[in-house]
């Protein structure tokens, strides 16, 4: 994935800007670019005015002013010492907020400590921190899976969600903006915890509190920590309770992560072929 788009406060001298004319200083050539990462949303007073989601995309943020004309400009054969001047015109002023929303095809959603970062490490080139305490991940990480045919699928690991996150418990849900762009979701469950299927219900609820319908994106459930004895008894119970495809793995030991990689490719191919229905895919 290429990584830059541009916000462009521009001196242009055209497009009907009142102060602009062909003689202004700073016309074409005096463009000020601000390079921003792909996925940056430009907002003005809370309203989105641009979504820079493509490499090289530009947003013309503000016109510059026109320079004034000094005495020399009025120099002529008739007037060798002009005292005339012409004032310039002030540039446009805007106050814009730049908000980064991670660009990834798939998002890993789970309770803290479920093993999201461990899974991302196991399936992609990313190396997010892993630790035995909750809220290790404080910012999203994106890893890329490269397939033999050179196709690539980007997966975002986001901070853990807890029940009541939409009421600002835990880390809150503000980082769910990173999930908004994901085409499909992997719900990561710690199968060694009691009744892990209840986590799935809570996660879906929190997603829908953030954006109704968000939890309905094409998805799969990753039943993690299957190497632990407590996890094994939960697998069949989970399968009988959820409609989604369940993929048992041990992210720690790298067991069955291949199935996750292949399934992500299926989801990706479905997306590329135009299955953008946004509804739960049931297997
Ligand atoms: N036994 C076992 N432990 C695991 C497995 N996956 C992760 N862990 C452990 O679980 C703990 C949490 O793993 P992380 O990958 O940091 O979990 P996370 O979901 O990213 O956690 P947050 O960033 O806090 O949301 C670590 O001690 C991992 O080693 C697994 O498959 N089996
Ligand atoms: Mg983590």
From TrEMBL:
Q: Which key words are in the record?
A: GTP-binding, Nucleotide-binding, Ribosome biogenesis
Entry keyword annotation includes Nucleotide-binding: yes
Which InterPro entries does the protein's record reference?
A: G_OBG, GTP-bd, GTP-bd_Obg/CgtA, GTP1_OBG_dom, GTP1_OBG_dom_sf, OBG_GTPase, P-loop_NTPase, Small_GTP-bd
Among PROSITE patterns, the record links this protein to: G_OBG, OBG
Per UniProt, residues of the Obg domain are 1-103
OBG-type G domain residues are 104-269
Q: GO annotations under biological process?
A: ribosome biogenesis
This protein's GO CC annotations: mitochondrion
Coiled-coil intervals, chain numbering: none
- SUPFAM superfamilies from the entry? Obg GTP-binding protein N-terminal domain, P-loop containing nucleoside triphosphate hydrolases
Any GO molecular function? magnesium ion binding
Superkingdom of the organism of origin? Eukaryota
Q: Which family does it belong to?
A: Belongs to the TRAFAC class OBG-HflX-like GTPase superfamily. OBG GTPase family.
What is the name of this protein? Mitochondrial ribosome-associated GTPase 2
* Organism in which the protein naturally occurs: Muraenolepis orangiensis (Patagonian moray cod)
Phylogenetic classification of the source organism: Eukaryota, Metazoa, Chordata, Craniata, Vertebrata
């Amino acid at each position: 994935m290429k990584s830059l788009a541009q916000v462009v406060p521009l001196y242009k001298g055209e497009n009907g800007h009142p102060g602009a004319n062909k003689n202004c200083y700073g016309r074409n050539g005096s463009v000020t670019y601000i390079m921003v990462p792909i996925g940056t949303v430009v907002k003005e007073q809370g309203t989105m005015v641009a979504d820079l989601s493509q490499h090289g995309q530009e947003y013309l943020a503000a016109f510059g002013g026109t320079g004034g004309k000094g005495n020399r400009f009025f120099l002529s054969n008739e007037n060798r010492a002009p005292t005339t001047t012409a004032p310039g015109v002030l540039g446009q002023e805007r106050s814009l907020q730049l908000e980064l929303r991670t660009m990834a095809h798939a998002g890993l959603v789970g309770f803290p400590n479920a093993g999201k970062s461990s899974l991302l490490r196991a399936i992609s080139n990313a190396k997010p921190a892993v630790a035995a305490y909750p809220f290790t991940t404080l910012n999203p990480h994106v890893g890329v899976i490269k397939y033999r045919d050179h196709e690539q699928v980007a997966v975002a690991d986001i901070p853990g969600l807890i029940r009541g996150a939409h009421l600002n418990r835990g880390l809150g849900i503000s980082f769910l903006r990173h999930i908004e762009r994901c085409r499909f979701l992997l719900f990561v469950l710690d199968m060694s915890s009691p009744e892990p299927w209840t986590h799935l219900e809570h996660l879906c609820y929190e997603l829908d509190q953030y954006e109704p319908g968000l939890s309905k994106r094409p998805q799969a459930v990753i039943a993690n920590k299957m190497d632990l004895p407590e996890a094994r008894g939960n697998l069949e119970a989970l399968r009988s309770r959820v409609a989604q495809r369940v993929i048992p793995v041990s992210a720690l030991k790298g067991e069955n992560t291949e199935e996750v990689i292949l399934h992500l490719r299926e989801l990706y191919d479905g997306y590329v072929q135009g299955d953008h229905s946004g509804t739960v895919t049931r297997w």
